Amino acid sequence: MVYIVSHTWPDRWTTAGIKNNITVYSNCDEVELFNDVNATSFGKQKRNGIGTHFTWNNVNIQYNILYAVGYVNGKAVAKDKIVLHHLPAAPHYKNLFAEKSNDVIAPDKNLNYIYRINCGGNNYKDVFGNEWLADVPFAYNKKFGSLSWADDYTNVPAVFASQANNNDAVEATTAWPLFQSFRYGLNKLQYNFPVANGDYVVELYFAEPWYGLANINAKGWRLFDIAINDAVVEKNTDLFNEAGYNHAVKKSFKIHVSTGKINISFPNEKAGEAVVMAIAIAAENKQLETVTSVQGIIKNLSSNVPASVQYWMNTGDMFFSNQPYSFSELPPALYGAEWIQSTFDSTQSLYKYNFTVSQKADVYVACEDTSAIINTSGFGATNSCMQTGGFSQKKLAVYKKRCNKDEEVFVQLKQPCIIAVNEAVDIAASYDLRSSVSYNLNNALITGAGFTKDSMYNKYAVRFNNQSGDTVAWKISVGVAGMYAIKLRYRTDDDEEKQLKMQITDAEGNLINEKPLKIPSYQKEKWGTYETDTGSYINAGNYNIVFQTIHAKNLSVSSIEIQ
Fold this sequence. Notes:
3 helices, mainly beta, 4 domains, Jelly Rolls, single chain, Immunoglobulin-like, 48% strand, seven-stranded antiparallel β-sheet
């Protein structure tokens, strides 16, 4: 097997250039890493033994593909690939896509398609010129759309914990955006569509998005039934067994409708959860009209620049419709939001937007220069930001306003902005039931000659400017005997793995535990948490925890939490 670490981190880099700490897991004799599809090699590495990994440093990443090949006895036996956001397309990037003539989404020319839905995703136009509509919850318009377990509860977002994305290449199709976003769930996940009575063909599109990566045999890991209008049309669907990991699958079912609706559901799951990537409903009756639009939270949009409503905001989406700026970082609240995408116009000195929200909603405005906001009535700072990568990197401050159902919203700015809207909810924040105590730098003893202390990204922190020779230590107290978790808050300013040595001593200076720590690189301008523990039970009492730098240049530390 061979597995490139970073499948879930497509925004790892926002620019091309020299990169470090690219790790590949494999049990092969050798692994070769490429920056294109089997081209632009960074060379082979030999396996050093059980428990070791393959790591490339100081390599010049220029393209959006990482491609690894594993060899046994000189023969290629396994491969893996990831696709990155923000970087230029590799010369052989298109080799990852299926031929149009073999695309699983090719339409039946004898049918009239009434609905095409991108489940869990945005509006999308495929290579055949067909428009797939964004997935909008049934609760938003009461005409057609999705339902899930969240509809049984008040104050829970309609799509909460039932939508996900997969950034990997998809086999057997050109329509990656259809298959990289999806809905998942148990027997509460369903779709409703009003239709005229008559005969229809329901096309359901799937791919196995989780199980089977890295040559794992995932047969039987996901088993679910498919039902249309409460009649089971297929039992024990096993996507991996049919096609493997992330391979597009099409299933067609002929049905007769006499109740004026088509309901698609997944009534029974023997393993895992049901997933669905796209839905198309068609008929031979050419007189039936095609549904060409959806209604979400944003309605009646008007603006003085070309603009359109987009759905399911995610990193990798384009800031402007006509410029190569893509989102590299979003506040958690904006993932999956509806948003307004504008056309960039360098001659425009004022941007005006006017729309209505169809239900109670939180409206967000993000802009680079906060002084450019003219109309800020009711908007407050969120202390969060979004960032763009690629051709131009921008950092945008985010403001928020809560609006009532059918409230009209006006936004005016002197520069381009992002406007996003989410269903208004007040879910209580999660918390850990275990008690914990935090210790910041005010409680720490810092020694050495190669450190600086400063406020960095809303945290008071110590930054190590040399690789070694510095220490930061805390005195802690625990009231109950037990093994304790130690959570170190840190950030890195480069792609290198950092190394510390942690020592725990009791009040008399006796060594309780000593261990090396390998701190992984983290997203720039983000604080990460490295978790370790005391290594064994310790008694109630006072202890010293010392972190000594071994290879820690450009590492910043702000606090520890004992739990």
